[in-house]
Amino acid sequence: MSTPRTDRPRQVTAEELRRRGWRGRLVVLGPAFVAAVAYVDPGNFATNFSAGAGYGYLLIWVIVVANLMAMLIQSLSAKLGIVTGKNLPEMCREHMPRWGSRLMWVQAELVAIATDLAEVIGGAVALHLLFGLPLFVGGLITGVIAFGLLGLQSRGHRPFERAIVFLLAIILVGLVSTLFRTDVDAGALAAGLVPGFAGIDSLMLATGILGATVMPHVIYLHSALTQRRLEPRSMADTRFLLRAGRTDIMLGMGLAGLVNLSMLIVAAALFAGTDVPATDTLEGIFAGLAAQLDVVAAYGFAIALLASGFASSGVGTYAGQVIMAGFLRRRIPLLLRRLLTLAPALVVLGVGIDPTQALVLSQVVLSFGIPFALAPLVWLTARRPVMGELVNHRLTTATATAVTAVVVALNGVLLWQTATGG
After folding, report:
1. Whether the Cβ atoms of residue 417 and residue 204 lie closer than 8 Å to each other
2. Higher-pLDDT residue of 401, 44
3. Is 81:227 a contact under the CB 8 Å cutoff?
4. In this structure, are residues 260 and 48 in contact, taking their beta carbons and an 8 Å threshold?
5. Beta carbons of 237 and 18 less than 8 angstroms apart
6. Contact 15/234 with Cβ under 8 angstroms?
7. Coiled-coil regions in this chain (predicted)?
């Protein structure tokens, strides 16, 4: 009588994948697609559609620039996790005084809560548009679905990543399918790639697009998604993982950029120069798509928004786990973490605060957290004692520093505009 085998399948090594060439790189894909969710969250839906409705194709170049910035920043975060085997919160705890690490944790937790506020509201609005559910009920459903997504982590990183990629595919199909059915002005689209503005209001909207592009929670998370994913046994292995990570980022962030461009182009083609009302709200966009194109386009938008709310809420809670474990070396049960970040969103929905206003408020809170994530990331990846021979090239550090300064300045403008009512 034979005895059953109890050994687990052997995990493939980085060296084996390296020897497979481009096929090996495909196996490493995944982390950037999870990070890409932050760039197509419900806040981006409202901002990009508003830009297209208000100024046509004028601000297409802003989305392109924002996407290039995202690629650079996420590549540094992924690099930190691959080279050091530790994530950004862990590295901050190691290289900062205790009081500084605790302050970083506090602001990062506020960022996690603000992130979940936007994502849950987006999911709730989508469920209301699709099925007429009350916003509070929709928020509860979004929270439960996100919790279910996080439960996939117990089976390893692959099931969670596959679920996120599936939701990203839904977002892409829901928006790009409408783009192909829209009469796009190719000449105006090409002209929109040339930087330019049409007055102070367009400058402010461009500031909003750029400033809201970099989400601090996903900077923390991406470094955690790449750490110890595959243990490099040599410098050649590490360099292979870095190359594979760059491919991952190009594909994942490229997908996010395509989604954002689709939103703006559709809005420019259907709403710009028309009297369609309330195109700066999610509900108004839904109604406008139905009026200007058809119900299929409207429901495609709502389904994409729903997938965005589900995926981004799950990713946001995942980031909250990484933040607490990294800064404090403590973990709390996943259900408690989900409830803590979900509660503020349910309160907002329960008391009847306007969802669009709540989304704007969440972006303001996120703006405060951006420099706390970006500055340490650039500083750490530019330090030879941390990164060894894989330390950033001087040009990379200079570019990343300039991007950090631009993002921080733009978010400062947004904060000032919000505070003064400008």
Report:
1. yes
2. 401
3. yes
4. yes
5. yes
6. yes
7. none
Least confident of 20-34, 75-89, 92-106, 389-403: 20-34
Alpha-carbon distance of 154 to 414, in angstroms, equals 40
Residue type, 391: V
| Domains within the chain, CATH numbers bracketed | 21-420 (1.20.1740.10)
Query: What is the C-alpha to C-alpha distance for residues 327 and 275, in angstroms, rounded to an integer?
Result: 50
- Per-residue three-class SS string for the chain: CCCCCCCCCCCCCHHHHHHCCHHHHHHHCCHHHHHHHHHHCHHHHHHHHHHHHHHCCCCHHHHHHHHHHHHHHHHHHHHHHHHHCCCHHHHHHHHCCHHHHHHHHHHHHHHHHHHHHHHHHHHHHHHHHHHCCCHHHHHHHHHHHHHHHHHHHHHCHHHHHHHHHHHHHHHHHHHHHHHHCCCCCHHHHHHCCCCCCCCHHHHHHHHHHHHCCCCHHHHHHHHHHHCCCCCCCCHHHHHHHHHHHHHHHHHHHHHHHHHHHHHHHHHHHHCCCCCCCCCCCHHHHHHHHHHHCCHHHHHHHHHHHHHHHHHHHHHHHHHHHHHHHHHHCCCCCHHHHHHHHHHHHHHHHHHCCCHHHHHHHHHHHHHHHHHHHHHHHHHHHCCHHHHHHHCCCHHHHHHHHHHHHHHHHHHHHHHHHHHHCC
N- to C-terminal Cα separation, the chain: 80
Q: What percent of the chain has pLDDT over 70?
A: 94
Q: Which of 291, 245, 251 is nearest to 271 (CA)?
A: 291
